[in-house]
User: Which sequence fits this backbone?
């Protein structure tokens, strides 16, 4: 049953005041709703060096009521595999292992360990919080950064390549559950984490987490920006179970009623796109439309 | 009747892990370690050993996963060699910093480039400063026994242990090895109660970001800073010298075999000229020592079994009457001497001992080291000027 209203979400908070994440952090909001869908007392979270490390606080204080195992950058999915194996060995399979890594830790340095863990069918959930760059180290380019974005390592010419299609790589592992989500659609996010929690095998969730300092938009616009990513179609909400893709939430509505927002609407409120040309906007629009069509076709195929 | 089998050191290592009832194995194949992982896979698939087996996609992931499994309280094992060990390097630091009792076999092999699959000890020596305990074995029996001891040590001091043995020379060569009864191993090594508090109560942020200075926790207790925690590891590693010696003594009491604890001595009662080495080369040095004695030189041998923590006091004690100390080692700290010779000189200097210390690099990349060469080189070192160098170089102008 889909959660219909925010008042139906659990009221208990697992992230207490005092988190070290930036104001209006898309990851923080994602994590807040994800923890509500998990059972934090019976969850081990594996976290690479990332914004998530910072969010979890500086020794000996943490604002998060969940056990977090910090791991080196490339090792997230391997550490999670070890936790799963260790829990099985000590007969504590009542715990859920959830990896939380950013796009750098997933698309780039962590992809090998992730692929290994997925190929082995590791019984865990992997959440990629994609903020489209190395935000923790100061907005360097990652393979998840969008084309035409200025980053601190593409400072003059902006990024020339489109974002890597990570989910297709994940899907090639034929795992039982894949979903995308957005912190601006918390009910959808909550339901997907809850669904994933109860599935055995490898589950992969990708959340596009807007980052005010990295993308260059005001803190107050976090929710608006997250909604815009979905409404313009650059981020599509769906889930894939046993190979079948189903659009969800606002993306499902857009599939029925049509998209009205454009890439031009999307890029104008973000300073990272300050150098984007008309041609680049067109190219990004075309890239977005093509992906959207693919998702639509798969959705309609059922 | 004793269960003696003609097996390789790799088979002995796998058997040792099985006798220790490891619960999680993660490994990635690399020559010459592969038979260890194959044997363990067969034991686990056949149900002979109840353990999880992670066929990971890299050595980095192998070490990452055994560290994590150890953090939730499982007894874990992995093995690797050469570039595989180098690929683990980041995780070796992480394992020691996490204070987990991981045990790893390192089947010593030279590192590329250029590629070699044959033996030297550059791989493990390059991991000297990761905070691990490193034990070097001279033969296959010692490999089996030392892995059992390694769990005892690691679980006592909460520092990971690397058991090193020479690729091919030991790993692929069959010798008689006595396999101890399971009951005796169980008596020596009780089941691990190693849950570090992660499971079953409270919330923890394990290995978080830490400041340089101490900081108050929510109960207003002052907690250490980064440097203080690193010092604790260093201090505990120094104290592990006792634990290593003790583990060997207690092993001997149950199994009737000991390996000298920190260092193994041969002919040292009246030795004036001492050959010092590690691993199988130390055993070979005994042939040279015998030959030197037949030439009228009172020679002895020391095998450094524990290289980290470094047994400086034990070595200084054993070498207090030495006139010549000749170190033969299968590694080099490029730009200076062999690593063992460097450490040994430092220990002797601190102890106020001034024997002639000679340093020889030998047998890199599988080059055969012959006893006659050891004898000749040691005799020259004893009778002529202090000597440094690489022995048996060929084909270079």
Assistant:
């Amino acid at each position: 049953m889909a959660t219909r209203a925010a008042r139906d979400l659990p009221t208990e908070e697992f992230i207490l005041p005092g988190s070290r994440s930036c104001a209006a952090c898309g990851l923080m909001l994602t994590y807040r709703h994800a923890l509500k869908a998990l059972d934090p007392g019976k969850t081990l979270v594996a976290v690479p060096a990332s914004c998530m490390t910072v969010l979890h606080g500086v020794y000996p204080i943490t604002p998060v009521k969940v056990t977090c195992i910090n791991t080196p950058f490339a090792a997230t999915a391997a550490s999670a595999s070890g936790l799963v194996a260790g829990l099985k060995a000590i007969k504590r399979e009542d715990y859920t292992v959830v990896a939380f890594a950013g796009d750098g830790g997933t698309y780039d340095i962590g992809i090998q360990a992730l692929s290994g863990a997925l190929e082995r069918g590791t019984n865990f959930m992997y959440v990629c919080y994609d903020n489209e760059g190395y935000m923790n180290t100061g907005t360097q380019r990652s393979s998840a950064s969008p084309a035409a974005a200025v980053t601190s390592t593409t400072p003059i010419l902006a990024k020339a390549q489109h974002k890597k299609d990570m989910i297709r790589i994940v899907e090639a592992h034929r795992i039982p559950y894949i979903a995308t989500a957005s912190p601006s659609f918390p009910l959808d996010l909550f339901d997907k984490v809850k669904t994933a929690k109860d599935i055995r095998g490898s589950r992969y969730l990708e959340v596009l987490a807007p980052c005010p300092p990295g993308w260059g938009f005001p803190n107050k616009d976090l929710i608006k920006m997250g909604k815009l990513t979905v409404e313009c179609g650059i981020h599509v909400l769906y889930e894939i179970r046993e190979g079948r893709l189903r659009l969800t939430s606002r993306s499902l509505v857009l599939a029925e009623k049509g998209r009205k927002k454009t890439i031009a609407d999307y890029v104008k409120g973000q300073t990272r796109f300050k150098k984007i040309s008309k041609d680049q906007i067109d190219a990004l629009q075309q890239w977005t439309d093509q992906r959207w069509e693919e998702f639509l076709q798969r959705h309609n195929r059922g | 009747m004793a269960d003696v089998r003609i097996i390789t050191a790799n088979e002995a290592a796998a058997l040792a892990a099985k006798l220790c009832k490891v619960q999680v194995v993660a490994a990635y194949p690399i020559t010459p370690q592969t038979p260890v992982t194959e044997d363990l896979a067969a034991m686990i698939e056949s149900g002979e050993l109840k353990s999880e087996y992670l066929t990971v996609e890299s050595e980095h992931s192998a070490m990452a996963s055994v560290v994590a499994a150890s953090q939730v309280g499982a007894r874990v094992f992995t093995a690797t060699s050469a570039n595989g060990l180098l690929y683990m390097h980041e995780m070796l630091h992480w394992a020691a910093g996490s204070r987990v009792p991981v045990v790893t076999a390192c089947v010593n092999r030279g590192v590329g480039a250029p590629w070699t699959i044959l033996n030297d000890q550059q791989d493990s020596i390059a991991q000297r400063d990761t905070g691990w305990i490193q034990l070097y074995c001279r033969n296959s029996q010692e490999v089996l026994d030392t892995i059992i001891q390694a769990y005892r040590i690691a679980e006592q001091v909460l520092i990971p242990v690397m058991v090193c043995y020479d690729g091919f020379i030991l790993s692929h060569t069959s010798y008689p090895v006595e396999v101890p009864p399971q009951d005796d191993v169980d008596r020596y090594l009780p089941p691990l109660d190693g849950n570090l508090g992660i499971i079953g109560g409270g919330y923890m942020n394990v290995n978080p970001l830490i400041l340089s200075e101490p900081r108050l926790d929510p109960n207003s207790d002052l907690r250490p800073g980064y440097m203080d925690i690193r010092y604790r590891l260093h201090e505990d590693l120094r104290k592990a010298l006792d634990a290593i010696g003790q583990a060997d003594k207690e092993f001997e009491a149950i199994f009737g075999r000991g390996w000298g604890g920190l260092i193994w001595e041969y002919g040292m009662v009246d030795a004036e000229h001492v050959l010092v080495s590690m691993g199988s080369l130390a055993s070979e040095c005994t042939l040279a020592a015998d030959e030197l004695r037949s030439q009228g030189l009172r020679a002895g041998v020391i095998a450094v079994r524990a290289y980290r923590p470094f047994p400086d006091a034990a070595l200084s004690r054993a070498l207090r009457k030495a006139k010549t100390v000749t170190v033969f080692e299968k590694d080099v700290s490029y730009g200076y001497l062999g690593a063992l010779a460097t450490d040994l000189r430092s220990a002797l200097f601190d102890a106020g001992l001034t024997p002639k210390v000679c340093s020889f690099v030998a047998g890199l990349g599988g080059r055969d080291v012959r006893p006659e060469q050891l004898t000749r080189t040691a005799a020259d070192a004893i009778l002529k000027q202090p000597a440094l160098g690489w022995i048996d170089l060929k084909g270079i102008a």
